[in-house]
Design goal:
Length: about 375
């Protein structure tokens, strides 16, 4: 560990020893948002005794908070970094040797490994993003959709955008991948009509046995849409999430209100993949993730997320594209220039799509 982290480790050991909890920090993992210290303690030490020292540990370390938790047989103390590091989408894509078809780039996990999500995997089907204001939920949804557009031709993948407020997905409206060229659908009546048309498209594909092009149905503010659209919206979404995957349709829905009363019935059985940012309560964390005890209510916000799949969780820092990058990449794709499967930071505006740098490994779910 570097000197700074060795000092923090020594302070953690000092606090625990002062409270008669002999412990040793044996490893530190540095992520973009926090440092995780791995600790060994004497046999029989109660986890609750250490958890109760979280505030004192934070005070000793000069941190706004610490998180103490167990993962398997390892005890962790998590400390926020003083200067969090942004994970840029273009930087991350530039480090990948390749991005397979129908894969979205999410960010990097705690080990620094790029995290990708393959839409056409039987284990994915549909994706729910949940998080309060400031969690980075909408930014992650944009990143996910933009990365799909960056690495897939419009003839192979299309995107339908539904956004009641009209702001979250507006930067993507100029992509040539937009389904039927209809831009961002805002009004409740238009959203209902679009969802019903998508159900019709699903049924047509079922009849002819067709799955291509893949169609990502992106919805921002899912709870608001369900409230304003009522039963017709709920019925259409239920049909799309129950039968859409076989026809190549994938719902990617975001909500800042994952309360059971609002979206619980639809979400419970139909979204195998959950991307959960900071939420307001343990109950919201449970509804959003489908699991108890994820502690999503303790996430740090601003792109700090959990990927939940098959009862397992992976914590990751979401990749980010700022307004200028969104505009530049969208314009580049819309101009019809040659699309390769690799991008690099600082070169989208210049119109060059160079080969990736190095052979960084990647995880694909």
């Amino acid at each position: 560990m570097a000197n700074k982290y060795e000092l923090q480790a020594a302070r953690i050991e000092s606090v625990l020893t002062a409270h008669k909890v002999p412990a040793r920090v044996w490893q530190a993992t540095v992520t973009p948002r926090f440092v995780r210290f791995d600790i060994t303690t004497a046999l029989g030490t109660r986890l609750s005794k250490i958890s109760n020292l979280a505030e004192e540990l934070a005070f000793s370390l000069g941190a706004r908070a610490t998180r103490v938790y167990r993962e398997g047989g390892v005890l962790h103390v998590e400390v926020p970094r003083e200067t969090p590091r942004c994970v840029g989408l273009l930087d991350l894509c530039g480090r990948l040797t390749s991005v397979p078809p129908n894969c979205a780039v999410l960010g990097i996990d705690e080990g620094g490994i790029p995290l990708l999500l393959r839409l056409d995997s039987p284990d994915v089907a549909h994706i729910l993003l949940a998080g309060t204001t400031g969690s980075g939920k909408t930014a992650l949804a944009r990143t996910l959709l933009l990365s799909l557009a960056m690495h897939n031709h419009p003839g192979h993948l299309q995107i339908a955008l539904l956004d009641p407020k009209g702001r979250g997905f507006a930067p993507l409206a100029g992509l040539p991948h937009i389904w039927r060229g209809q831009g961002v659908v805002q009004a409740p009546d238009d959203a209902t009509a679009t969802l019903q048309a998508l159900v019709g498209e699903m049924e047509r594909r079922d009849r002819v046995g067709r799955q291509l092009p893949r169609l990502a149905i992106a919805i921002d503010e899912l709870a608001d849409l369900m409230q304003t659209g009522g039963k017709p919206v709920t019925e259409a979404l239920t049909r799309l999430t129950q039968r859409g995957r076989e026809a190549g349709l994938h719902v990617i829905a975001a909500t800042q209100r994952p309360a059971a009363a609002l979206v619980g019935g639809l979400v419970k059985a139909n979204f195998p993949i959950r991307l959960v940012g900071s939420v307001t309560s343990a109950e919201d964390a449970k509804v959003a993730s489908g699991l108890p005890g994820t502690e999503a209510e303790r996430l740090l916000g601003r792109g700090d997320f959990l990927l939940v799949a098959k009862g397992n969780t992976i914590r990751f820092q979401a990749a980010y594209a700022d307004a200028a990058e969104l505009a530049s990449i969208t314009a580049r794709i819309a101009a019809g220039g040659r699309r390769r499967r690799t991008w690099a930071a600082g070169q989208a505006a210049a119109g060059r799509l160079p080969a990736a740098h190095g052979g960084l490994s990647q995880r694909t779910s």
